[in-house]
Amino acid sequence: MQIITLTTDNGHHDFYVGAIKGRLFKAFPSAHVIDISHGITPFNVSEAAFQLRCCFEEFAPGTIHIIGVDSEPLFEAPNERYPGILKYKNQYFISNDNGFFGSFLEEDNPDEFYLYTAIKDQPEAWRFTTKNCFIDLALKISNGTPISSFATVFSNYRRAFDQKPAIDQLLIRGIIVHIDSFGNLITNITQTDFERFGKDIPFIIKYQKKEYFIDEISATYNAVSQGERVAIFNSSGRLEIAINRGANDGFGGASKLFGMRIGDPVHIEFTPQGSKENIQSLF
Fold first, then answer.
1. Distance CA 51, CA 81 (A)
2. pLDDT (tens digit, 9 = 90+) per residue, 191-246?
3. CA dihedral 38, 40, 42, 45 (to 10 degrees)
4. The model's pTM
5. How far apart are CA 28 and CA 62, in angstroms?
6. Range of the domain at 44
């Protein structure tokens, strides 16, 4: 059984997702199709990369991921953008080469990468490319057709701008990169970034207003009382700031309660013994 995932910015208001799935099941009658998200902010390939990066390793080898975000090709030099096929960790990713691949891979290297330049001679695939091109590419891959027989090997791919945390001697400066449906604030600070300062070193997480600081990492949301702020490293290894059960009764969670948006700063300041007189000196 072929597993295919869909990640698009098409939303659910219009017919687009239905059309994609209709074409998919026509090509793959027995496929198992899984929606990652159709709520990606329009044209935001970094957001699509974040969503897939957080979950792709849960899928079986051979899974094909179709990413329909900013998928229309462009043929004007020097900014050509062709459909690309990435093989990575025994899975396949089909997207326009619009920055998604570099953002998704971060510092990793692909196993294989190809561009489908033949689309230049297929005007019927220039519009609604997710439906009219990507599904055909997925079918070739699923059927075992060597990718090199219909696409061209490339070593370069575009990378969308992704802001990385700035790490100083005793400070990590990060930002909010995603707000989930519970209103939880997910940052670009990873557990690896945090642990490079060692264990059992006092710290405070500062964001928005100083009275909102957090000075411990919890294992779970329920490690604090309902309505209390909490910081955890989530299942993707990213620092997350939340209000335990704060999304109940329509309050909207940490994003609304703290008035924070994507791009807002989050800082972690470490205080090795002797570096500060007391916690108040940090403010």
1. 22
2. 999 998 888 889 999 998 777 899 999 999 999 999 899 999 999 999 999 999 88
3. -120
4. 0.88
5. 15
6. 3-153
